[in-house]
Amino acid sequence: MKRIVVSLFLFTMVVVFSGCMTAYSPASADSLRLQRSKTPDRNRMLIWRAWISLEVGNVSNAVTRIKDVVTESGGYIENQSDSGEERASIALRVPVDSLTPAMTSLESIGKVTSRRVSSEDVTEQYVDIDARLKTMVALRDRLRTLLDKAQNVKDILAIEKELGRVQGDIDSMQARLKSLKGKVDFASISVTVRRRRILGPLGYLFKGAWWTVEKLFVIQE
Predict the structure, then answer these.
(1) Which of 17, 27, 131, 154 is 20 to 30 Å from the Cα of 95, by its Cα?
(2) What is the rounded distance in angstroms from the CA atom of residue 156 to the CA atom of residue 158?
(3) Which of 51, 44, 40, 43 is nearest to 99 (CA)?
């Protein structure tokens, strides 16, 4: 029993340590940087996010057109909220290759008051998790082999406990990789739509008066 437990401990330490060395050693980091310098940007794992705010004459019509843009782009709506005909917020997900044409279509729906697009490079994060996942899978397979050979109840319980922990780590890493892949494949767009304010004669009068007062105040300073 002692030999099996010691063997299990030593193998776990060797596999985990080798996995850490693969993920974090300077040589590995240098190789990754070299690979980045030779790899086109299109092969990088980028998470794209965009924000756009629009002023429109009719909020309901604008929301309908936004949904049409999502359908045409092959995407989907993550969530939506609105305040009647005054305001609406919609979170979209579209295939990353459709981000630019989708933004162009959204801009045609109303007056653009703000627009922002950003990206986050998660290539190294993905590679790191993937390397550690492979290490844990190898450890799990070794534990299963030890479990098949174990004859003592205490050995079986100890191996099963470690096997459960390792499998939990594997499930967590697989979920993180799946999540990252989904964010890379589908860009997110946050759209805010507000109803355009149309001033009547009295509104324009007050606006002009306020503009005059504001200019005089600036001059006095």
Answers:
(1) 131
(2) 6
(3) 51
